[in-house]
Fold this protein.
Amino acid sequence: MPTDLTPVIAASTRWLLAAYPPPAGALSRALADAQARQATALAAALCYPTSLDVQLLHLLAPSGSHRLDWLTGCEPHPDDTDTAWRTWVDETVVSWAACLLADPALAARANQALATTEHHTEAGGLQRLTHPSTRDSEATALLRHPDLLEPIAVLHRPQLVELLTAEGAGLS
């Protein structure tokens, strides 16, 4: 049974970039992709902290993008035949990633909580997420805008905040 979060991270990142696109240009696209990927990787690691959790995710499948598409109006074009990736979008991961993107201080707390998961060595550096530069912020004007992210972030923010303030996370 797979214990890899890559499909969920990739699909959730792709969904975030489709819903909140970066400005034109290859550099903006790359910077936005890096930040969205860091946010979804951190969110996925916190949401599915053990290999057993990941195995259950693969067995039961993620929630897909239907509800997120409906909330944001980011539904696929009827002529788009490449929609299979949308089945790997995880609503909780996207919601938590939206929370992390909108609030770098929360992202820093989540990064500390990452040490309590089995994925703590897989996340890599999260500098662009936790301490975005001016150029990073310009590339993600929509992706980090708290008001725009709110309909998605509010879906599962209470669970993320509870996780990050729990004694077991070592952050209280």
